[in-house]
Amino acid sequence: MMLSTQALLSAIGVGEKSATVIGATFQWFLRDLTGMLGGILFTFYQGSNLDSNAKMWRLVADLMNDLGMLMDLISPLFPSAFVFILCLGSLSRSFTGVASGATRAALTQHFALQDNAADISAKEGSQETVATMAGMALGMFLAHVTRGHSMAIWFSFLCLTMVHIYANYKAVRCLSLKALNGERSSLLLQHFMKTGQVLSPEKVSMEEHVLPLWLNPWSSKKFKCLHSRINLGVKVSSLNHAAMTDLFFCAGSYYKKAKYLLLEKNGMISIIIHKDSTPVDILQSYIHALVMANLSNKSKSGHVESFSWMDKCYEDFIKKLQSSGWKTERLLSHSVVWRASWFIGQSDEKID
Fold this sequence. Notes:
This protein has eleven helices and five strands. It is mainly alpha-helical. Helix 3 (54-74) runs antiparallel to helix 6. The protein is elongated, with a radius of gyration of 25 Å.
């Protein structure tokens, strides 16, 4: 950060007689404005996913912060595109601010074993302050030593960035979160359906992705990503006529007492949530959808076989999850905005 800030101030014109105060102020204003707008847009599009993928977004936040500092370091090399590069760096760091703040709250809950989130947060803040102070002292020394030597600046920056990325990757890998999200539920279910046993949080932590799938070509192929085929909280009015017909058939045939409906189409499984469903019902609907997705790869009668599995094995699966330390009170997912209403337990189903 010290190296990138030094480059940024130099590009703005600090120390140059030709630089004007109003010019530097305007450039700094554009930088801050872009960051604010970027933070708002990022929250709008990804805010509901931060809880369910806290590990991934914690690591992405650090990567985006490094990318923002890289933009600041590059900016003096392209004077004609300086403002554009400056705004890109600010945009990248705005994602960092939102994602790191939100995931810090989620991870604090994980470490608060005695419901002492405030105590954990205060101590974490103090540790970060001490680390920042030490980093500032070393950063000022490094900036002074490398001043005027562009090769030394770039070598130092790239080395420190690689160490930073690796350290954050290892730190995120060490986290063994016990709350269920889409991917962890998928890993646990597939292993249970094969062996009848439940993986521990530590073993699941080694299998789950901490980067988006498209950024992680070296990820394990041991488990299929069933959760990527499931749409939770689908809006009923978004379904076409054929899908609505299948939905009414399923409602009358399979889901007379359930607070959710499942609809399988072209390999994708849509979950329609009842307006009176609880977090436990949403978790059950998601597990049911994962079972159907797994069985549909082997058989065409996914509804029948998945219901048979749920009747025989679901309670045992939940009990083994609880005994292994997993939290089964709710599913970490995006907010379920769209819910439907139908009469449960009657022969004639009606969906609004």
